[in-house]
Amino acid sequence: MESLNLIHILLYIMPFYVANSTAMLFGGKTPLDLGKMLSDGKRLLGDGKTFKGTLAGLFLGLLTSLVIAGLFPSYTAELTSSYVLLGFLVSFGALLGDITASFFKRRSRIERGTEVLLLDQLDFVFGALIVGSFIYIPSFYEILFISILTLFVHKASNWIAFKFKLKKVPW
Questions:
Q1: Per-residue CA distances from 167 to 60, 84, 170 (Å)
Q2: In 3D, which of 44, 38, 61, 45 has the Cα closest to residue 132?
Q3: What span, in angstroms and rounded, lies between the C-alpha atoms of 160 and 157?
Q4: Which CA distances in Å does 5 have to 67, 78, 146?
């Protein structure tokens, strides 16, 4: 079994963790779907996915990668020679993964705020992994570690956001 490089994992996940969390924190105003309904009578995405949140998440995920690349150039170079591009891609992928999950939840008639185990916790991770794979492909064990870590981090951070009244539900 290969060893895990925790520094590489942290460098990899920070931009998309920031993108995902700040999209929620800075969301609001105009929804991405502009209120459009599909033929099933349900909204395309719903009010939870907004232009403001998506752009804030993308910008802050990219900014995170710029700061990390500036502070730790030798570590980011070990991960990839295009770390800032990787940061952009995984941030975009995380947001796309979350938006895609929202689309499928609406199609399944799952109301906004209803928890879907694993989907709600890992949608942004798998979006980041897929889009980021153009630059960097984590090993199976890195993906497993990131997924398990995210289950715990997601639960804890959402509970904290709920306690600070940043979220209506603790998941």
A1: 20, 30, 7
A2: 61
A3: 5
A4: 20, 11, 12
For residue 51, what are its two tokens?
């232009």
What pLDDT score was predicted for residue 2? 66
Q: What is the domain partition of the chain in residue ranges?
A: 6-163
Instruction: Report the distance separating Cα 3 and Cα 73, nearest Å.
Output: 22
Check: CB of residue 102 under 8 Å from CB of residue 48.
yes
119: Cβ contacts below 8 Å, ≥ 6 apart: 101, 104, 105
What are the tens digits of pLDDT across the range 130-140? 999 999 999 99
Kindly give, in sequence order, each residue whose CB lies less than 8 Å from that of residue 140, ignoring residues fewer than 6 positions away. Answer: none
Q: Render pLDDT for 17-44 as a digit per residue (tens, 0 to 9).
A: 999 999 988 988 999 999 999 888 888 9
pTM: 0.91
* CB atoms near residue 11 (< 10 Å): 23
> Taken in order 74, 76, 82, 87, is the CA torsion positive or negative?
negative
- How far, in Å, are 27, 109, 132 from residue 83 at the CA level? 26, 39, 10
